[in-house]
Each structure stands twice: as structure tokens, then as C-alpha cells.
Hints:
By secondary structure, the protein is an alpha/beta fold. It has one domain (about 5-305, about 375-470): Amidase signature (AS) enzymes, CATH 3.90.1300. About 40% of the residues lie in helices and about 15% in strands. It has 15 helices and 13 strands. It has helices at about 10-20, 25-40, 50-65, 105-115, 155-165, 180-185, 225-235, 275-290, 305-315, 325, 335-345, 350-365, 370-390, 420-425, 455-470; strands at about 45-50, 75-80, 120-125, 135, 140, 170-175, 190-195, 215-220, 260-265, 295, 395-400, 430-435, 445-450. The strands form three sheets. Strands 7-12-13-11-9-10 form a six-stranded mixed β-sheet, sandwiched between helices. Helix 4 (about 105-115) links the parallel strand 2 (about 75-80) and strand 3. Helix 2 runs antiparallel to helix 3, helix 9 packs across helix 14 (about 420-425) and helix 11 runs antiparallel to helix 12 (about 350-365).
Amino acid sequence: MSEPLFDLSIAALTARMRAGTLSPVALVEAHIDRARALHDRLNIFIETRFEAAREEARVAESRYRRGQAGPLAGIPFSVKEMVSVAGMPQTAGIVARRDVVAERDATVVRRLRRAGGIVLGVTNVPEGGMWMETHNRIYGRTSNPWDPTRTPGGSSGGEGALIAAGGAVFGVGSDVGGSIRIPAAFCGVPGHKPTGGLVPNTGHWPNDGGAGPMLVTGPLARSADDLWLLLGLMAGPDGLDWAVERPPPSGPLMPLDLRGVRVMVAAQNGKVRPRPAVLDGLQRAERALAEAGARLEPPPAGLFDRSLEIYGAALDDLEAAPFDVLIGDGQRISLRRELPRLLVRRSRHTTISLSTVVLQRVADRIFSDRLRTALSTRDALRQQLIDLLGDDGVLLHPAFPRPAPRHRTAMLRPMEFIYSGLFNALNMPSTVMPVGFASNGMPLAVQIIGAPGRDRLTVSVARSLEERLGGWVRADPQL
């Protein structure tokens, strides 16, 4: 099977299958071969279902012959392991959950499979899903396909690595603080964090349908058009997730000509400064959008000065288990017991997870009063941004303040996630689009943020960037 097959969008692949020039069986088999080779190199999967995928590809082939193929018929995809796939593990990388197997498909997985998509397997995540390094004590560490010494991000890190290198046509991720957008940026793939309350989280662990709009489920894919197609299939109420009230988005994306669109370029988020390479990528995107006809406007000064407090307050406001209870699968872990075990490499938890527990407990004691007042600041900032952006404005912002860091070093600057996390707290849609590469060969990306419900606008602006700057380029690690 020729390499260009691994570069094609959903529309291009389904067009070939409808024309009879590409077999779903051949398409799935080719991606199985590539996915297996990528896993051997990068440690991407937690478990695969290749035999079942082959059988489903044969069913898709017969549906194409009968003219009954759905919009994703024969398209192989992958799923972050925290999103349930019937019969597959759903451990969230937590040792206490190592034997947990999902009994049914999550709502989004069921909808994508009903449209004809074929699940290849479930991909690796950080322990408890709470970090930008995809590593846990059950399945180990996942690497970035552009440079295996670097992280693919998290918590949808397995998804980012697989989609970036062409091992699946698209993937399902989730995001409570950047877990779609950080892997998308680090691995150089388009990704979309939907408006909260648009896509059901039913079947996600933790917070199955109960986290409100701060946790979202969304797609990573090869193109902006793919993101828009997938969002339309994934979105809409399911009667189970109480937070989802918005109907699925519909209609085509906006024209590539962006006249009538306003772009506010926000280069910095609070006190965390971006690296020069990231600023270069942002300026590249700014020029491209201006050439497409967008009107550039400066944002108000000091807009994000209290970002960390706002995110901390929003996370604290969730009706969810604390992280130290979550990674203990319902039992509060003992730092007094686990930290000595960590020193002799006998802890069931990763260094990053235990560090996160320490930070959380310190924050609870020291900053509890400030976090409570930050909720009103969050609400005021959200309304300010809604008023500023309106129906025709977006923020152009770094997805992360540096390109993908080397393994184990992301924890040295733990607050950098705020470039993405703030917009979960504000319940705003955000689309990540690659904009080229840094001098070290790692991908650069930006995020486009809109007012709540303006997902069509953010994906449309991302598509205009994709048209002018090239978008996703497949990583090709030595296999």
C-alpha cells in the first residue's frame, strides 16, 4: 500500500472507496500494519482489536457494494483509553484499575461506529489522565513520533502520537486542561476542544457524564474538514450527560476568505512566557490570517493575569473526586507511605502523579480563600471575552509556551498548561492547527479560541491557516 494513503483525509479516502478504487479491507489492513510498527517504536496502544477491525472492514466493503455506506464506512480510528470501548481496558493508567474492562461503548464511540468507523484499539494515557507526559506504571511511557526522546503530550498522548504518524485516520480524545490540544500541538496534528456541553462525556472515566462543561470529548484528525465532520457526528444530547443541551453543529465551514473575521493576537498567558520558536509560529499564523482578509485587533492588556487562579478555582469547583482519591480508585492515597516507596522504585504511582498530589494539597491549604474569589473573576473574564469576540471574533494564542519537551522535563515547569487550561474554565471552543516546525524539527502550533458555541468559526479559521501554511505533515519515524 502506497505511503500517500496515510496522508489522505476522511473525504478523500471515502471517495476512493465509493468509487471502488480502494477497498476498506486494504485500507484497514494497511493501517493495522503501520499502527503495529508505530506501537513497537513508540509504545502507543494499551490494547488492540485488529481481528475485529478486519471483520468490520469486510462488512464495510459489502455496504459500499450495496450503496449503503455511512460517512465513516471503513475508516480506521483509535480511542483514548479513558473513553470506553466495549471489551477494551479502561484503566486510566491506574494500577488499582488494571483489571477494569469497559462493558459498553461510550456515546461518542457508538456514534462514530454507527457512522461506519472502525476502532483499531485504545491508546495510552498518563496515570489518572492528569499530566502532559503519557506515562503510567501499567503500560509505560509513550514517545513523540517526531523525536522519541520527547513527550507526545497528555493526556491524549497516545492519540497524538498515532494520528501524527498516520497510524489511524482520526482519534477520540478528551480535555479538561489541554489534553486534546497539548498532544495536538506537540505532535503537529489538528485537534478540537469543543464548547462545553456540546459533546457527551458518557462513558468517560472519570466523571462519566458528571463533570459539567469543563471536561470535553473531541477529535484529533488529519485536517480541519475532518474535525468538522467528526464534531457533527459526535455532538448532541444523549439523554445521559446532563450538561449536554446544544444540538450538533451543522452546515459547511466558512469560506477560506476571512474578510469579516476579527483576530485578537494574545501572545502570552499570565506570567508564563512563551519561547521564541512559539512566538515565531504565532507570528507566522498572524501574517497568514491577515493575508486571508482577517482584521487584526489587539486584546486588552492584562487579560489573562489571573489565569492560574481561575483554572484552579474552576477545577476545585468541579463535583469530582480529588486527584489523590482518583488515582487510588476511590481510596485516598497516603503520601507518607507512597513517597518512601517511590524512592526505592516500589510505588504504584508515578513521580508526576505524586507530585501533583503534593501540589494539590498545598494549594488547598494555602490558596483556598483566593480560589473562592477567583470564581467571580472567572465569570467576569468569560463575559468580557464573550463581549469582545462576539459572533465574528477569535483569539489567536499559543497552544503551549514551547515545543514538545524532552521526557521527564515537563514537570519542571508545571504551570505551562495554563495556555490551554484557562479555556476549559471559561467553557470556550478551541481548535489547534500546526503552523510549521521549530529549528529543532519539532512541530509548532497555535490555538484559535472563540466565544461559546462558535466552534464553526474556530475550525473555519484553522482551515484557512491550514490552506496557507500546509497544516498536518505526517511524522515518519524510523520503523
